[in-house]
Records
---
Amino acid sequence: MDQREFGFGIDIGGTGMKAAPVDLSDGSLAADRFRVDTPQPATPKALAKVVRQLVEHHDWTGPVGVCMPSVVTHGIVKSAANIDAGWLDIDADALFTEALGSPVSVLNDADAAGLAEMRWGSGRGRAGVVICLTFGTGIGSGLFVDGVLVPNTELGHLELDGPDIEKRAAASARGREGLSWSEWGDRVDHYLRHVVMLFSPELIIVGGGASKKPEKWIDRVDPGCEIAIAQMANNAGIAGAALSAPEPGGSVRE
């Protein structure tokens, strides 16, 4: 594959790690996604081994983008909620670059999903403040100002009616507490109104598992700004990670 037209992304989750080459013209996967269970414990050494396995499966030899469920600052992991605590302050860029022998750039998973949505999905061409939120086990967030990412916002950890609103408004809360779609939608609306009050976005894009059935709950949501359903679905993390991979010459793609 011509690496000027294709990228390679890896999405590290708490239970699974998945990867594929990505067509950078439209964000589609250029080959079938390959998934491996996340090793337990999810230590740096264990994840580096699986990252190499994922890349070798696709015979990829160029730069790689990796997203993971952590605050990541200049390649340094600053939180480890769903991975081993041994990741704290690890230079993930350097670790994976050494494991692969190719340049690697690492970022937060929700930021990666947001990058994909802004480039190819519901946020394409949108200026102003746009917030991408993924509702799943938790709530991930990607904040953009005129298309530029403000990284590591972690808006699922906002305090609203107690600490960590994601415990009450993530998609997982609906099943855990036996909520109806309408009851859960009301919680999402309460949360989104708080986000709108704080950031005054022009658009909020909602993704994650709950976005597959918007007709069940979206009519309960009216936070005072435009709402759109994410378009990139389960491939958003991989696509956004591929977009963030270093250029073959060493710089990060714009």
---
Amino acid sequence: MPSPGRAELDAAGIHDPAVRASYAACRALNARHGRTYFLATRLLPAARRPAVHALYGFARYADEIVDDVHSGLSPAAQAARLDALDAELTRALRGAPTTSPVLAALADTTRRYAIDHRYFADFLTSMRMDTEITDYPSMAELERYMHGSAAVIGLQMVPILGTIGPRSAAEPHAAALGVAFQLTNFLRDVGEDMDRGRVYLPADVLAAFGVDRARLLWCRDNRRADGRVRRALAQLVADTRRVYRRAEPGLDLLDPAARPCVRCAFILYRDILTEIEAADYDVLHRRVSVPLSRRLAIAATLLRPLDRGRHRTRQP
């Protein structure tokens, strides 16, 4: 019996050994780093999973350039690496060979699903912002960053997931879901991001509750949140829940075969907000997570209708 990775590539009609190896490298990145994302991807039809792994692999690869605190790279060196990645990506998308497994898989996925190349340019623009900007004075400024770092991720996914009607109807919801996921990450990872010198919580929202960077640092250093920080984080959690509500109608616009995957990710990422609330917003010195038992239970619940459908399909 072939391994899950090989079976997915077979189902997708990917036969070239070098291209298969490139997709396998992206799948390994997703399995290692994207716990919830990888679990949700397993609910997609096998033929579509390699493309999702390729998108994740590229995003992770670029993220590591700006987020690896152990690399010792200066912001200028990070920007130079992003420029080099951008140039190599442009060549790969034009059909030139590449030695990067991640870019080889991404270029193949982009051709197969006709994904707009501008989405990758917008993504790299936001990654460059991480080499220059350490604070966001307002939600409007943060939204400019999240267009490239999150909204376009949702837009990249739409051709792979498929829709029951015009893509244009589903795209605003997909973009909103990408933003909701990233806002959730910002709240979960606020302490880790501060270790990288960045604060992705809008300063105007924090200031409304008497919170600034110095207050956040004090809470991180003292391993506890105070009342002002808790109230500010509660407001940001509430704001993020509103983004999820804006995204949710888009689930029913997707191809039915893709809905369990996206609904799984939707539920489990939104559950991170519940875990933040349960921790009384004490998240500056630790990362909360959805328990494995909860993740597996949600995936199993969403998988059961798929299994019944596959069983009926196999009946004579």
---
Amino acid sequence: MEAYCLKCKEKREIQNPQAGFNSRSTPVTTGICKVCGTKLYRMGRTEMHEGLVAPPRVKKEIKRKGKLVIVESPAKARTVGNFLGKGYTVRASVGHVRDLLRSQLSVDVENNFQPKYRIPNEKRAIVKELRAEAKKAEEIFLATDPDREGEAIAWHLMEAAELDEERVKRVVFHEITKPAIEAAFSNTRIIDSDLVDAQQARRILDRLVGYNLTPLLWEKVRGRLSAGRVQSVALRLVVEREREIETFIPKEYWSIDAEFKPLGQPESFCAKLSKINGNDPLLSKLEDVEKLLPKLKEAKYIVGAIKKGKRTRKPYAPFITSTLQQQASRKLGFTAKKTMRVAQQLYEGIDIGNGGQTGLITYMRTDSTNISHVAIKEVRKHIKDTHGKEFLPDKVNTYRTKVTKAQEAHEAIRPTSTMNLPEKIKSFLKPEQFKLYRLIWRRFVASQMQAAIYTTISIVVNSENATDDYQFRASGSELFFAGFLVLYEEAKDEDVNEKKNGKLKLPKGLEKGSEVKLFKLSPAQHFTQSPPRFTEASLIQALEEFGIGRPSTYAPTISTIQARGYVERENKRLFPTETGILVNDLLIEYFPDILGVNFTARMEEDLDEIAHGRRKWNDLIADFYKDFEPKFILAQKEMPEIKTEPEKIGRNCPKCGNELIVKWGRFGKFISCSNYPECKHTEPFLEKIGVACPKDGGDIVLRKTRKGRIFYGCENYPNCDFTSWKKPVKASCPACGGILVTKNKKEFLCLGCDEVFASGNIAIEEAA
């Protein structure tokens, strides 16, 4: 038997060999070199080891110290780490660390719909680092977001990083402030498997729908299309609204206003014809009005009633996700995606000069209007000190959520401290952060203020000695006590017609029974209006009312249907494209129930049942797939191919001479050579609006910034630098001949002389 001798530098025979085992229980043989006497050592089992029993392997005791905290984002990690201090190591997972495979369905339909997860390549280094950190830590805290998504991320971290369950604790906080974090770390819990199952069920449902329907659309229509369980329902709402508008037939109707004067007085007041013989007047055409006017003029009139009173207007509830997105859209012009991005920044923490980052708002994905007692106490003190006792209600204002089934016990979206006044911290915030924070702050403070009070007055004027009974009515209101309105007023979409009663001033001495003289009749023609197109705000409102989606899904859903080219946003309005209408009609024809509003809403309720431990996720998926699979197989066989010919642009490729065509990519339309893949020439797609550039006469085209914001510029850029955020129109300025752009729904603005013109007074040239 030989072993390598370090002194002789070659193998030598082992003299007096002794079989044994090392500290790791590995068989070894020791002895001395026959030539130089140096100790020799050989690893491996030999015949001499027969009958020998290896001693038990002694595990090396790992010395652990410190506490590891894992959150989702680096920004959140910095803020949380700032509050925890020494002894804590805070690391970020940078979102999900595990997901379904992208290259396959990743759901084992035959094995009770078990998902197949993998760690994406770009996350392997992060997971490796977290695993190494976890081995050294005495305790591990998973501090991901306090919703189903956050619970699922925590569970995936456990699995992917192979964390020791005995050392892992789940911490949940709804705001990133020192008191909230201290309270959370004092009240740890285990991972809630019901919340994880609810999120897993949603993910698998979305994969079963999207992974099957998307290739179907690629095969039957064209590539780069997609379908989804929630996004397709949102698209359906937009398409159906467009069809309502297209089929709407305006109906004519008339109203009649009258001006009355009390006998012997110069002052007058106006009232509207409200009843004829106790019924609403039916004046559908001019002939009806012309027949009625002489009868009204002949009648005598007296005051039938005068009623004075007060009306209160209660403040609005603090923001939840949907109402924040709606008001940010209407007041600030933010898209839902931008609102959530900026809100995330405010939540995760910003340095406001207090020696580190601090969270400025509570968690922004919530459908609860609850407010903590600490926050209530602080805001009531602020209202009393700043506005006075009269603006503070005797009891705390409480609100019930309008959402059918609000999810976990979150708080409303509010400032983490009312004392962080918007103007006080403005210098530390970006403009968009300041605008959103001020909106959230004002809404919250206003929600705990006294109601506004209006004085109201109404008057009824009745006819006397007439062939028919005519009744005219007028009402008005005036703000008596501003209450919460000193701080906050709700914004509405432009086309929402709310009846607003202005100030009504009645002549002195007018009372019930007073005779009044008809001074003037003013008939007016009207037409019924079609329902308005959705804005992002009103679409979110509709999704919430129908129970479709959840706070975390509103923004991505609306972004997706625009990114796929199904819906376009112009002047805040959502228009379905031809592709959007085509895809919607095909999906509705073959999957009418699955992509129906009621079905999707019921599915959300079922997911809530899983989250509360009242239903198994596998059973829900099985029930869904039993209905979905046969319809999908039928669609594969019978759905017609509607692939259109490539759109030619009328030019040849400058590289190879073949025709250039329009194609769709990940980011929308682009121009490509028809000889692809042999020729890879591409150009950006420029959508002309039919208006000439005022600088060089080129066509003005629609363009988009990197963040998707629409603007208008010359097709000859960079040789011509004309740009405008507002859409130019095919008309010249009456004052200077410059180019006009759309300022708002009713006005045009001249870019040359800054004059503003009513759109009704400008003649728009027809496109050639």
---
Amino acid sequence: MALVLFHTSKVRQALKQRASLGVDVMLLAGIAGLVAALAMVFGQASAPMRQQVYIDLSLWALPKYTLFSLARGFAAYAISLIFTLIYGTIAAHNHTAEKVMIPTLDILQSIPVLGFLPGLVLAMISLFPNREIGLELACVIMIFTAQVWNMTFSFHGSLRSIPTALREAAAMQGLTGWQIFRLLEVPAAMIGLVWNSMMSMAGGWFFLTVNEAFTLTINGQNHDFRLPGIGSYMSEAIDKHDHLAEIGAVFAMTLMIILVDQLFWRPIVVWSQRFKLEDSAAADEPHSWVVDLFKHSRILRGISRFIARLRHRSASSAAVALAASHPSESKIRRIQLLKRIVNYVVLAGLCVMAVIGAIKLLNMFIHLPIHDPTPDRSWSEREDWITIFLALLASFARTTATVVIGALWTLPIGIMIGLSPRWSHRLQPVTQVLASFPAPMLFPLVYALLLLLHIPFGIGCIALMLLGAQWYILFNVVAGATSIPAELKEASHIYHLQPVQRWTKLYLPSVFPYLVTGLVTAAGGAWNATIVAEYLNLGHGEPIVAFGLGSMIFRASDSGKYSLLAAAVVTMSVFVVMLNRALWKRLYRLAESRYSLNV
């Protein structure tokens, strides 16, 4: 009997070793493929500038184009993550700067992508006139502007909601600012940051057909600034009515989103659960087949042990250095004085830049009349301040309707998904595909449905805006429901709360801070979506236009009317500041004072 057991254990050990070897081979093959893909991407970025851009509509070109778009998306995400950690930390710790930084963030997230794109493309081309890297950088930065805002809002809100007791404990332990950031603040914000990162990648794909297939009118001449990618592929397929290429692009985009979700986001979601602020583990934890698979990798186990030893050594040396360092009062004063000087210099530089920009804007605004006297022009074609104001009201009504409609269904569905790891595991790939899929690719189908239902485009374009904005609310609500401590859920069962009471006393109050972040970012996403939702070009015939600020910005950018473009963008920015003061700031205060779990 002992001999049989010994033989059985030997067989199991041999099978485990073979499985480990197979996983390591897969890992090395994946790393080799990643290196080859990066080499191809860098080759594209360093290529000479092309005067004539050719987009290959064969299906064989789709893998390469998909890789290019994916690389731009992850490059933009890396920049967004760095920006989020720096900007959100400064805003959370410096209350004086916060009064300027958060409204500025709200303005920037609401300005449509075409408000940035013309100037950015021209600036990058002037820096790199002979290489494609200028256009590549411009495209990455434009994707960055679609990704970064909701991540920063989420991270800032999470830092403001850290329990006072935890900060006091960190101060009692004598932790440095870097240690507090690494050991307390980032872990406390991790769950919300992960879910908003997924939404950021989805938001980056929304304007892919605009960012990769951009043309600009300069001095009356059209210039082609397209880049090879799945967005420009789809745009070219629509223009040439190549339905096979359109179907291929849809399939490639869907496959890419699913692979990114399963290979990248799902493991991160599982890993982020260790940062939940609770004392007892949840009964049903999320799982990832990728995480389970790579647990058998000997290479990863060796790397993990090596990193653990390095962290232990660095922690020990940091503790010794902290115990030995006692800065004098004069040194502390010199450091504080240096910080003040740097702050004043930066502030002065920003003021000078603001004054120069204001003077240039005023010179552009002089050419724009208060009222366009031309009688034969329609409202959508007029170029005056009164028309800009009326267009602002029209777009505001649509963005408000978009946010309200989106919240009505995402709030209950998001809570139910977040409360159940099983449903989260099942629906996360679905929501990732739906949220990440570039909505402009679906606009022709939605417009056909609007025609079938006899819905005017001025109202129906709300559905187009909803395709991009609603996911910001859903992902934030899911993050909020996921963060509810298991102790509170158990307490609701112990006290026999009815389902309605659980929703009104626990679930809705717990997710309210996340809901506010979702509403703010959804509103910004809706304003951004106006440029493609209010001006619909199907590739044949006249474009379908709904009167609003988004369609005005699109026409101004497309025709090179930069005075009208600047006036429309500035009007939107001023309005967003007023809305931030009147509504969003009060909701943030309410969320922090009454509905934060961490008070």
